[in-house]
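This week, study the protein below.
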Amino acid sequence: MSEHVQITDAEIAAARERGKGIGPRIIATRYSAGKLTVEFENGVTVSAPISTLDEFAFLEKLPSDAELSDVAIWGGGHYVFFPRIDVSLYGLHLMPAHCKEKHDH
C-alpha cells in the first residue's frame, strides 16, 4: 500500500524562497550556430559550443539545430531545458567558479 504525501501551498512557497538563495538564476538562454548562450541575473553571460557540454556526450547523435533551438529556462531559473530531446543542464555547472558568488536579488 502506497502512502500519498500532502504538500501544502505554504511548503511550496517556502521551497521556492529557499531556491532563490542557490546562486544566480538564469534570466535568458538561446541556441544559435552550434552554441548555447546563457545569461544569469548577476550579469554573467556564458557561451559554449554544444559539443563541449558533458550532457550531450552520451547521446547517440548530436541533436539537430531545430531540436536545440527549442530551449527553455526551467526549475525556477536553475536549469536550461531542451524539451524536444529531454535534456537539462544545471545552470551553475555552466558558470565559471569565480562568477558563482552570492549576490543581492
Notes: The two ends are 44 Å apart (CA to CA).
